[in-house]
Amino acid sequence: xxxxxxxxxxxxxxxALSALPARALDVASFSTEVSPCADFYDYVNGPWxxxxxxxxxxTRIGSFDALRVANDRLLSQALAELVAQxxxxxxxxxxxxxxxxxxxxxxxxxxxxxxxxxKPLLDRIASMKSAQDLPYLLAQLxxxxxxxxxxxxxxxxxxxxxxxxxxxxQAGLGLPDRDDYFKDTDIAKKLRAAYRLYAQRLLAxxxxxxxxxxxxxxxxxxxxxxxxTVPRAxxxxxxKVYNPMTTPELAEKAPGLAWEAYLKALTRSDTRAGxxxxxxxxxxxxxxxxxxxxxxxxxxxxxxxxxxxVLENSAARLxxxxxxxxxxxxxxxxNGLEQHAPRDEEVILMIGGRTGGSPLGLALGExxxxxxxxxxxxxxxxxxxxxxxAAMKTRIQNLSWMSPETKLKALEKLEAMQxxxxxxxxxxxxxxxxxxxxxxxxxxxxxxxxxxxEQIKDLDRPSDRTRWTMSPHIxxxxxxxxxxxxxxxxxxxxxxxxxxxxxxxxxxxxxxxIGHEIVHHFDDRGRQFDSIxxxxxxxxxxxxxxxxxxxxxxxxxxxxxxxVKGTPINxxxxxxxxxxxxxxxxxxFDALQNALRRSGxxxxxxxxxxxxxxxxSNALVWRNKSREAALLNQxxxxxxxxxxxxxxxxxxxxxxxxxxxxxxxGDAMVAADPIKVW
Length: 678
What we know:
The chain is an alpha+beta fold. It has helices at residues 40-51, 63-84, 92-105, 107-113, 119-126, 134-142, 186-205, 212-228, 247-253, 259-267, 284-296, 299-314, 320-334, 343-352, 361-372, 375-398, 404-416, 440-458, 503-520, 541-559, 575-599, 610-621, 628-637, 643-652, 655-660, and strands at 5-6, 60-62, 150-157, 160-170, 244-246, 278-281, 418-422, 478-480, 484-488, 624-626.
């Protein structure tokens, strides 16, 4: 299964509700000085960007972020009610999430717990006698969600999606990106110094030795891991990360670590002895390096590294000394923050995660949907998805360069694509999980252990195409690996979707999101998977060659943009998202044209035609302002381009945009040779 693709930027939550327009389109906020044909983003958003101050506790503010805050406020109020009124905790999920939230809001209890929640893990690290203990300890950490340095997960096998398989992947670095260990730039140097200080504070606060020599050894250890870590852009090739092998084959490829013992300890449960006959190793060279380090790195250095990973994993949930160290590194050094976000927001984020795939994410989603999603919204969203899929079908049929054979397979895949809208039909029962309202860090480990146990059960079950991996409260959408698209209730809200708005606004908002996710299944990676999500080549050689040439043009286009002077967009890292924007927007526009033909409603509103309102709505969706540190981190690590360029690049390559705003050849918003991927 290829990794989930998300529409939104994985940046910090942000903003007060003032960023949400009072009307469907806040036309009074548009620039009177910038022409829409010169810079459409600045025409729509420039005045807002100029007058908007970044709050001290936000890395970024904008439309996505404002809706996140609105959803979090709704959840915060609902969670407070659940905690205060246990009678409202009518389902297992609501009971568990109430206890988790209460534990996160109880700062006195967190201080009273001290290091007690992580003490068993720290004691286990201290008890290591030799490298022979490593496979068992690494498995123990993996069972509570600590990937140090090997990550693991269970998903459908991408070449046989009806069965599940265990995958091992590279992990375990403390710096944001592997290149940060080696680059000689000012940013990399500052990050290395900040991380070194972070590790020193964690170790010292926990009572461990943190001398310069200890920290030197830690940085050297992680540098060796980083050296073997495959760069992010290279991970986008699904064939390169699909390396099936048996346990003996892994042991032969990566000698020095008892992999059979590790896998047995990782996958055992009350109902299975442990071990796997076959697994996927995403980055074999990384596993070879880990095994080599198990043989040759001093035990004391391994212990330091593992202590830092354990403390880092829980730092934000531990007493103030640890939480402060974590904020100073992640919040200040990496993202440029000056203050914490409100406590309730931080707790909700720690429970649900940024993409809602955390152990208790669906419990938050269950609560959110009970407060903020209607059958009418689900009905309208279903119709919109049908419209955008129909537009994509026409696009495929009309492609001049694609052969009939490839078109047939593309249409089969589109027809088989399964939408998930709003929320799952049923909710997890969280059997075997018991969270403590007085133990925040302990709850994190309990929830992770429960989630790991559920994944291990999946090893002996067929893949489940109905399962949700994104919480309904999240302001995002995703294209999942089993040829599915998910639109949670959290994003089916204004300004993305508004039942009271005209079609142009909705097609420019959620319609674009729908088009984006559909195209993910046909982007440079998604196109390598068939109608059931299996990794199988269904393209003729000439069609694949033509598509690659178009993709290379997209790489070059985005690589010419410099959001920060001297730091261009990484066109290769962001290629999948960029293709999905470049094709998703025109497909949503086509869907709007079909809707307008059906309705006959083509009148201007606020002086703008439906076509113009489509583009205005889309530009408002990407309205944002970021701290430079956060933006630089995004450019180095995130597969999404900054919002401004998600407007400029697609629109300047759409003749429909030029026609809507009467732009002429030579205008900045009119590409001389437009790129049309789909």
